[in-house]
Amino acid sequence: MPSGALNVRPLQDDLELWEVEGGGYMVVDAGRQTLLEASPTALSPFDGVPGNLLYGGLGQYFTFDSIRAVDLRTGISESSRELLAATKDQIAATRDRLVVSAMDVEAVRRKTDPRWKNPAASLNSTSSDLEHVKSGDIRQRVPNYGYVTGSRIYENATGICGWVAGSIVTRYWHARSSSRKLLPTKYRSGTNMTSTPNFATYLQGKGGDATWAPNIEERLAWNAKQQKVGYVSSWALGAIGLFPEIDGGYPVIVFGDLPLGKKKKKGAHAVVAYGETNSGYPIAHYGWDGYTNIILNGATVGSTARFRLK
User: Fold this and answer.
1) Is 110 among the domain residues?
2) Average pLDDT, integer, range 203-225
3) Which of 199, 224, 260, 282 could hold 265 in an S-S bridge, CB 3.0 to 4.6 Å?
4) What is the CATH number of the domain that holds 249?
5) What is the residue range of 88's domain?
């Protein structure tokens, strides 16, 4: 979301409207920690509207009093009591379709520190159950995917998974177009990264360990600017646009409540998705040695960061 001031306004029941000054908003079910609708750039559909506000689902925005409710798009009014009753079912249906990780909800709420505070997952005994993709189940991988799977992997057991994922994506693009020198000189070892100094630490700068998509996207862009390399970057809530990026040949950093083993254990983690299985699941580098071709099956994706060279 943009970096402006955050204003939280009540809607009906447990719903809240989070508006960011200058553009960007979320409609959130605060009781269930669920995101119902959001845009990182658009003005809130309730922008500048005073009084009691009611959200009826995508494209349905109302102001109301004890008797009548007015549709903000059409100006048509109807009974407040009937509309409030009807929206309960509509919100339930919307919630079922658009549930995303609670970490994005918390991240936007804490604008002064937009990071999920729970420690990220680390490699442990249950991780050995993660499912590695078989050669016959691969539908596609990004060009030169070996630059992802063969990337140097920095120590990733202290909650810095987002920065490690960011370093892998940087190495991928540096190796894919090495003449453009995306990696700073002191962090290059051929087309790979040096073991020391640690590029993930450099990428992190003064940022905290825990991350979500905006933190990483911002620093990937910062490094490209430092290196005077043209780039395109963005981030999105949930898994929006994940497969189109992979289809286009671009690896994507995925944040969320991700599988940590076949025993259905899950945890907050960040990985690099660089392919797709025949069944439609992402193939991901988990940021751990020996876990470079994992099927991302059963993930609750909170946000994604995209970065590529122009």
Assistant:
1) no
2) 89
3) 260
4) 3.90.70.10
5) 6-99
